[in-house]
Amino acid sequence: MKNRFITSFKAILKFCFLNKREAIFGYFQTDLELTLHAAETVRSAIEGKLCHGNYPNTTGKWFLGKQTYGEVNQLGGVFVNGRPLPNAIRLRIVELAQLGIRPCDISRQLRVSHGCVSKILARYNETGSILPGAIGGSKPRVTTPNVVKSIREYKQGDPGIFAWEIRDRLLADGVCDKYNVPSVSSISRILRNKIGNLSQPNQYESGKQAASQPSLSYNHLYPYTYPNAMSPSGTKMSNSAGVPVTGGHVSIPRGWPSAHTVSNILGIRAFMDPTAIAGTEGYTPKMEDWGSVNRAAFPSTHGVNGIDKSSIETDIKYPQPSSTLPSYVAPCAYSPSNQYGVYSGAAGSYVSPGHHWQAQGSSAMSIHSGEIHSAMSFKHSARDGDRKPPSPLSKQQHEVLSSIHGLSLPTSSS
DNA sequence: TGCGTAACGGTTGAC
DNA sequence: CCGTCAACCGTTACG
Question: Which bases of chain B are contacted by protein, using any atom under 7 A from a CB?
Fold first, then answer.
């Protein structure tokens, strides 16, 4: 084994020396093991196992095809800047932590920075989810057609109405709630741009507003405030629709919970599959992300049953690469080349699961949802009990993980 | 030495 | 179609 590494390493050094010597030097700065690991990574890349002929450039980045690249951290681990670690690694981090392994050791073993380990574990402890947050996207619009219509009606009924009065009426009439009510400035903009000559001159409005209620505070109504007391601390985890979760300890709304319409709640933000929910009380996954994995693995109990509107899209957009991956490894936001290129190697399965809340679900995943749940749901038992079991994964699951990571598991199954 | 965290550079997706 | 913005990411460095 070691001879193979060393042989590979020599070949790699030769390759790098002949090509991009600078790229490799920075990687081989730690101990032999890490060096060999990095060497194997490089070798795999060179041989096409990882990168299909891609190569490191002078800044240490790995160009993967025409699209993207991976990088190697100080521990010799491969990562993609800006992208979440593969779900399998995240899961592994949590599992090792539950086995009592120190974060620093987890960091070294998995070659993931200790900051990342810390972050993932902290998030897990706080939310119960190993999954990353939703990347990209925007806050949901608050000026829905229905809101605009209401504003128009208010304005037509009382041309002299002020924006702040409209705002209050939107709340009073239940058109909006405190989380999705437009700001006064937004209402003013609507009056100005969409309703136009119905609105009165702004100076009049502002003058009256200042005179009548100069110190009116909107803070308590400001949209995009955290609807849950747990959130202002910076946590951005949530259920998918910003809906309070009755199950308790992990109900943390996302940072921008303004799911302002039923369609937003049901059609976009929520992906809970009622058929996959049973028996998972109190779990609040980030349903926006890793859609199919999450739905299967971290179902929620709250009754916002989503319309998985984009399951088909997902299959198209993020086709599941053919592989022998465990079933909980879902399609990924990475391009297929990225998936193979960066998170592969010994783990041919360092493939991140489906990611975007916008693109949800996967037929492949639904087929295997039972397995997914089995593989990923250890958290429930861990959290349901007073004490977390030493290893919440079954032997079979350990074997799956072992096969994924190519790592030994310090458990009874290994 | 281990760990939490801010800064940083990056990706992503809605607008 | 493209730029902007604001969310997220993991790594790194610092205390």
Answer: 1-7, 9-15
